[in-house]
Every structure is written in C-alpha cells, then in structure tokens.
Write a structure and sequence with these properties.
Radius of gyration: 59 Å
EC number: 2.7.13.3
InterPro entries: HATPase_C_sf, HATPase_dom, His_kinase_dom, PAS, PAS-assoc_C, PAS-like_dom_sf, PAS_4, PAS_fold_3
Strand content: 25-35%
Helix content: 40-55%
Low-confidence stretches: 1-7
Number of helices: 19
Number of domains: 5
CATH topology of the largest domain: Heat Shock Protein 90
CATH superfamily of the largest domain: Histidine kinase-like ATPase, C-terminal domain
CATH architecture of the largest domain: 2-Layer Sandwich
GO molecular function: protein histidine kinase activity
CATH class of the largest domain: Alpha Beta
Keywords: Kinase, Phosphoprotein, Transferase
Strand order of the largest sheet: 2-1-5-4-3
Largest sheet: 5 strands, antiparallel
Catalytic activity: ATP + protein L-histidine = ADP + protein N-phospho-L-histidine
Length: 608
C-alpha cells in the first residue's frame, strides 16, 4: 500500500503545473515535474540515469553550502537551454520525512523572464528619467489625493535646498513660494488642477530653505479616473539663471533701444527683401506711423513708387555687392513734404558671416540745406549790392564832381564879374545849381534808404486796391494828358509787399507811360495781374514811344539814364523801381518796340 502511495505521489509530482523537483541530500535528482524538466531541457526521469542538480545551477556557486544549512531560501538565476537563456527564480526548502528528518530538498522554479525584462525596461526608463533630470535640472513631484501624500524627487529637493530626508506637505510646499503673486498663483493653480482637472505651466518665484529667491518653472497635470482626480503629477525646473540672463538682455535691449531712439537721425534695419524689421523713434515719427504699422513693410508700401525704386536699387547695391553707401544726399517727398537727408547704408551680416540685410541711417539736413540756400542767396544779394555800391559810388562821385565843378566855375565868374546885371544872372544860376544839388542828394538818399533797409516789413496787400488809390491821387495828371487806364486786375489778388514801395512802383511806371506818350495818339495804359505758385506777375503796358532795347537794353534801369529828349527826364524813376522790387525779393523785366509801346513785368515774391 505504501509503495502504491509512493508511486502515486511521484506520478502526482510529474503533473504539477509548477516546476518542482525533489533532491536527495547528495544533490541527485530523485524526481521532478514535467515542467521542471522542460525548463532544463531534460528527458523524463528514469532509474537508469542519475542527474546531479548542482551543475544545472552553475551560476549559484554557494548552493551546496546553503542546502546543508537546511533552511528555506530563494534565488534568482539564469538557465540556458535549447530555447535560449531565461531568467528564473527558484525556491529551495528542506524535504522532511514522517519523523521530521531532513531527507533532501524540494525545489520550485518559476520563469520570471518577462518580469525581469519589465524590470529592466522600468530601470532603463528610470535611468533615462534620472539622466534627463540631471541634465535639464528638472525635478518632479507627485500628489496623491486619497492619502494627501506629496512626494518630491531628489532634484526637486535640491532646487528647494532642503535635506534629502525632507518629506513635505502641500502646505509646506506652497509656503516655499514667495508671498504675494507667486504664492497666490500656485495655490489657485494647484486647487484648479484637483477640482477642475486643469493642467498648468507657469513661471513663479520661490524662497529656498536657505533663503534664496529663485525663479522656477512649475507644471502640474491631473490624472483622472471616473471623473475624480486621483493624483497630480508635475515638474519643477530652476530657471533663475535663464530669467536673470533674459532680464539682462532685455535691459541691454532697452538701453540700446533708448540710445537709438534718442539719436537725432532715422535708424532702420532691413531684410534681404528690403522689409523693415527694426526702426527707431525718429524713423517712426518721420513716416508718421507706429512701429507696429511699419515693421514688415517695404518702401513701396510707405513711399511713392519713384522714391521706392531708388531706395530698392540702393539696397540691392549694398546687399548684393557689399558696397556701403556713406553720406549720400537724398531728397524724399512724403505726404507732400520734401525732406533732405544725408543717408548711409551698410551691409548687415548674421553669425555665419552671410549678409542678411542692411542697416540704414538718415540724418535730416533740411535745415542745413535751407541755410545753404539762404547763404547762397545772401552771397548773391551781397554780390549784387557790392556791384550796386560800386556803381552807386561812381554815380555819387560823378554827380557831386559835376555839381562841384559847376559851383566852382560859377563862383569864379561871380568873383571876376563887376556888372550888376551879370552878377544877378550868375547868382540865379548858383541858386538853380544849389536846387539841382539838393534834388540829386534827395534821389541818392532814396536809393541809400532802399538798399540799406534790410529789415523791410512786407504785408499782404490787395493789388487792385493800391492801384486804384494811386490812380486817384494821380487823377489830375492823367486827366490833363487825356490818358485812358484799363485795369484788369482781379479784386482778390494779394501781394506780399512794402506798402510805400508798392505805391512808388505803380506811380513811377504809370507816370513814365504818360510822360513818354506818343504825340500821334492818346495815352492808353493796360494793367494786368496773374497769380501763380511762384508769386504774382504785374504787367503795365502802354502805347507810347517805346525804347530801343538793342541800343539801350543794358542801361534801361541805370541811374540818370534817359532815352528820349524830354525836358523833365531825369533817368531816376526806373532805377528806383528796380531797387525797390529787388529789395522785396522780386524782379522787373521790360519788353518794348519803338513807336509801339512798352510793357514792364513786375514779379512779386510771395514769401514774407
């Protein structure tokens, strides 16, 4: 019966689903389950062939020693068979008989290859995570809602500068954030992550265990099951150095921007397509648009086509041929106003040394150009005045010398003459000579007054009104000479003029037209005026004797130059008119045909 029971027991052993083997004290296999034999690739057990077990566990060198201790223990080991090498876990326990005597060893072996591979994968992932944490200086944290347990990794503890043994609570963790905005913000975000399942990612400031203020980037993501937040997992990274560096860059950028904006010139940077990618305040003010409206635009978007074409051609020259433009004078018309610039453009290179655009600078020199024009005009006027002064000096010298000689001669006659009648005649001649000298001096004073009065004040005057006023004051003379005046000047035409000069110019030109009338026809004087951008053109035409311009053209406005045999001709009126109109920035020209008439064209400058 015992034998049958023994056979049944061994047969039962062979069918066990778990790999099991029985060893004697010498380590010889007594029997084993089929699954155990399969693990080692052994054939079914028989009594003709004894199998020693110790060689099967060659990677467990102390196995024999451990078995002699008659204690249970477990070991992990590898087994190689026809299926390859696998990972296994064997449990060794003493085998007792009915009398509790140790008669051998019971072995149970489990195939844990899949488990080991998973452990290796987890370990590999853990190593990757630790490497990333170490490299990126990013720590992680985990909060379990059920247990209210908060876990920090070593990097998170390092960031907070706490001991490795520190185990924080949520309250303690939140109190690390700087009071005020950072602490309030993280409290709100953490609460929303749990209650509303909202993830977050933000930059906040903490105060470490050692009292340092540090910027950190903190994230949190809730894990939800059945609508409930099970845990919140997040990361924390020390970004203090990055923030400080970024703030430093911003400070430098702000300083540079302030400096560039403060420069008294327009500064801009263009890309390869001539689009403006950076401008200063001066450029923005000139274009009269905000920086946001200008960035990304090219010159065709901002200026007229002609100006844009010229600018683009310059840009291509600078960027393609790497030829800088330095101090080039340009004139740009924008919004109807022309501005003169001194422009420079230089190539702009990236870190690889490749041209990526250009830097442009334009200095507004409009005021300088205006001063240059004023200086040229002043030089021109000064030159003209010098010429006039020389001519005037000659005239004064000649006239006074003539009067002086006449006086000397008459005085000599008076000294040598004894006849009372003749002496009376000479005395009358001296009186007439004195009157002529006074008239000459008066004329010369008028010329001096016109040429030396540099601060003449021009006023806007209605031209027709002043013409009518002169004609009224001159009506007796005009009626006496049966003169006809046709005034075509419009009521609304204004001229910028010195009132006294305007009256003098009109009076002299009309009186000359009557004075030098033709004996064959009644005097006809036609007055016209035309307004243009440059100013006003006043024309006074007559049908009088006319002037031979080929003969007298270069002398017509000279002092004391006469061209007709008239007793009252003094040759001073036209000279005075020319000086008066030029003193006001205008000019006068003449057209004339002998015995047909003369037209004087007076150009009034509109500038005050």
């Amino acid at each position: 019966m015992k034998a049958v029971r023994r056979v049944d027991q061994f047969y039962l052993l062979k069918q066990l689903p778990k790999a099991t083997a029985l060893l004697c004290k010498k380590g010889i296999l007594i029997d084993a389950s089929s699954s155990w034999l399969d693990i080692f690739g052994l054939p079914p057990q028989n009594n003709d062939h004894q199998i020693k077990v110790f060689p099967l566990y060659a990677d467990i060198p102390d196995l024999k020693k451990k078995l002699k201790e008659n204690k249970s223990f477990s070991l992990r080991h590898k087994i190689s068979n026809h299926n390859g090498t696998g990972h296994f876990k064997s449990h060794f326990a003493p085998w007792f008989d009915e009398k509790e005597n140790v008669i051998g060893t019971i072995i149970q072996t489990d195939n844990i290859t899949a488990e080991v591979e998973k452990e290796q994968q987890v370990e590999w992932l853990q190593n990757i995570l630790e490497t990333k944490v170490e490299v990126s200086k990013t720590g992680w944290w985990e909060f379990e809602t059920a247990t209210q347990k908060l876990t920090w990794c070593q990097e998170t503890k390092r960031i907070h500068q706490v001991p490795d043994c520190f185990e924080p609570t949520t309250v303690e963790a939140i109190e690390f954030y700087k009071p005020g905005y950072s602490r309030n913000k993280v409290s709100m975000l953490f609460h929303k992550a749990i209650e509303n399942q909202q993830s977050y990612d933000t930059n906040l400031m903490i105060i470490t265990f050692n009292g340092e203020e540090r910027w950190v980037r903190v994230t949190g993501k809730p894990y939800v099951e059945n609508g409930n937040t099970i845990k919140v997992f997040g990361t924390i990274r020390d970004i203090h150095d990055e923030v400080m560096a970024e703030n430093k860059v911003k400070e430098h950028q702000q300083l540079l921007s302030t400096l560039v904006d403060s420069l008294p010139l327009n500064v801009y940077v263009k890309d390869l397509e001539s689009r403006k990618v950076l401008i200063n305040k001066g450029e923005s003010n000139y274009i009269n648009k905000s920086k946001e409206e200008i960035i990304g635009k090219n010159d065709f978007d901002l200026y007229n086509e002609d100006t844009a074409k010229i600018s683009r051609e310059e840009d291509i020259q600078v960027m393609k041929h790497l030829t800088p433009i330095i101090g080039k004078e340009t004139a740009i018309t924008h919004n109807g106003k022309t501005t003169h610039f001194l422009t420079s453009k230089i190539p702009y290179f990236d870190l690889d040394g490749k041209v990526c655009g250009l830097i442009g600078m334009s200095l507004d020199i409009s005021s300088i150009k205006k001063k240059e024009c004023e200086l040229r005009d002043l030089i021109k006027i000064t030159s003209m005045q010098n010429q006039k002064l020389i001519g005037f000096a000659h005239i004064v010298s000649h006239n006074l010398r003539s009067h002086s000689a006449n006086f000397s001669m008459l005085l000599e006659f008076l000294k040598s003459e004894n006849d009372p009648t003749e002496r009376e005649r000479i005395t009358k001649m001296l009186s007439q000579a004195s009157d002529n000298l006074l008239e000459t001096l008066e004329n010369l004073n008028q010329v001096v007054d016109v040429n030396t009065n540099t601060s003449v004040t021009k006023k806007p005057l209605f031209l027709k009104h002043n013409i009518v006023k002169v004609l009224q004051n001159f009506s007796a003379f005009l009626n006496k000479n049966d003169s006809q005046i046709i005034n075509h000047v419009a009521e609304d035409i204004k001229v910028e003029c010195v009132p006294a000069y305007l009256d003098s110019i009109i009076l002299n030109l009309i009186s000359n037209a009557v004075k030098y009338r033709s004996p064959n026809r009644k005097p006809l004087i036609i007055i016209n005026a035309v307004k243009s951008k440059e100013g006003v053109l006043l024309s006074i035409s007559d049908n009088g004797l006319g002037i031979d311009l080929e003969k007298y053209g270069d002398k017509i406005f000279g002092m004391y130059k006469t061209f007709h045999n008239k007793e009252d001709s003094k040759g001073f009126g036209l000279y005075l008119v020319k000086n008066q109109i030029e003193a006001m920035g205008g000019s006068i020209t003449v057209q004339s045909d002998v015995d047909r008439g003369t037209t004087f064209n007076v150009y009034f400058n509109e500038e005050s």
